[in-house]
Write a structure and sequence with these properties.
389 residues; alpha/beta; Rossmann fold; 3 domains; 5-stranded parallel β-sheet; 5 strands; 59% helix; globular
Length: 389
């Protein structure tokens, strides 16, 4: 089977048709769904961003809930509308204790229509320790017909107490050529653009698809890299940091503005308020709650966007390091080869490693709610001077 075709038999093979390139994982989960004796009550699906963790989790949930051959129930699960399926993907920076407790409470309900009740937590790595402890009891004493499916980049992103109570399923990291073929198949873009997008996205399928179909996203990525390559001192580091935050903000707005407006319009319509009419005081609290949720989502979207820029910067200086060690055959940023060769010749490998280490530390600091501008300024000063000041 070609690696860029959907896993299983075909795209119409419910519920596995949308799972791509994860044959071994699908075989294991098919077997578990078909044999109660082989089924574990809690699973952890790990893999790099864009590897399809959430897609696989939904397909597994559909296979567990729906009776064999019941395509209607499977479609309900895949659409997120089946009463025995609950999924949580936090819209904030972290998963709140309130949301975790709501999931735990729901997990104790017996399935109403399906074979099992399935709880999917798509961002399990975004739990603070005290939130993880809320989940722990449900994993220690699970109801008989409830299955938990957690998703995270790696096992290390969860507490040892959580890891010890789940069965881990690690997804494979797809090749650039495989992702490029999939993107070309899905979007119809030129194969050369699909290959560039897959390479720049570092095999992240969702990001590769966005780069392939959104010229503005491609331009923003290029602008961010060029801004960093122009850094020579403190003043240019400050300018570049501001440019990165502004670009990430624009990117976040592009992703959330349309959704925010649609949510607001839907809420007002549900409340019987005509477009353009004044909002009565009695319903302002509901509108305020929606706006607060949207602000939290915007904060996460901004931080995710900055993290994406930092990931791109890691790819940039990874390329420099590859060139310094005589490896120019596997560059991520091939279009910048001339500039990267110049940096590789001007810098020592130790300086490149120092910059890479500081970028990694900056990504960690961003997870701790450090000011994005200050974190980026500090990191870019390291880029300018070749040492952490």
């Amino acid at each position: 089977m070609d690696a860029a075709t959907p896993t299983a038999t075909a795209a119409g093979d419910l519920p596995w048709g949308e799972v791509w390139g994860q044959d071994d994982a699908v075989r294991r989960l098919r077997a578990a769904a078909a044999d109660p004796a082989a089924l574990t009550h809690a699973w952890l699906i790990t893999g790099p961003p864009g590897s399809g963790r959430s897609t696989l989790a939904r397909a597994f949930a559909a296979a567990l809930i729906a009776e064999p051959g019941d395509d209607n129930a499977a479609r309900q699960v895949l659409a997120g509308t089946h009463p025995d399926y609950t999924a949580l993907r936090t819209e904030g920076v972290i998963i709140s204790i309130k949301d975790a407790r709501a999931l735990v409470e729901r997990s104790y309900f017996a399935p109403s229509l399906g074979r099992y009740r399935v709880i999917v937590m798509e961002d399990a790595d975004r739990m603070a320790e005290r939130t993880s402890n809320v989940l722990l009891k449900a994993l220690e004493e699970p109801p008989e017909r409830t299955v938990w499916v957690l998703c995270a980049p790696s096992e290390a992103d969860l507490l040892p107490t959580i890891r010890s109570r789940v069965r881990t399923l690690r997804l494979r990291d797809p090749e650039v050529a495989d992702v490029a073929r999939l993107i070309a198949l899905r979007t119809g873009v030129d194969p050369q653009l699909a290959e560039q997008s897959a390479r720049h996205a570092q095999r992240h399928i969702g990001m590769a698809q966005r780069l392939a179909t959104d010229a503005a996203a491609r331009a923003r990525r290029d602008d961010m890299l060029q801004a960093v390559l122009r850094v020579r001192g403190v003043s240019t580091a400050v300018e570049a940091a501001a440019e990165i935050v502004a670009g990430a903000t624009d990117d976040a707005k592009a992703l959330t503005a349309e959704r925010d407006e649609a949510e607001r319009a839907q809420l007002l319509s549900t409340l019987g308020i005509a477009p353009g009419a004044a909002v009565p005081p009695a319903v302002r609290a509901q509108l305020k709650a929606l706006e607060d949720d949207q602000k939290r989502r915007a904060t996460r979207s901004l931080r995710d966007g900055i993290d994406r820029v930092l990931t791109d910067l890691q790819s940039l200086y990874r390329d420099v390091l590859m060139l310094q060690f005589g490896r120019g055959d596997d560059l991520i940023n091939l279009e910048l080869a001339t500039t990267l060769h110049a940096v590789a010749e001007a810098w020592s490998p130790q300086r490149t490693l120092t910059v890479l280490d500081d970028i990694a530390e900056t990504r960690e600091r961003m997870e701790q709610n450090v000011s994005p501008v200050l974190a980026l300024e500090s990191m870019l000063i390291t880029v300018a001077h070749g040492r952490i000041l």
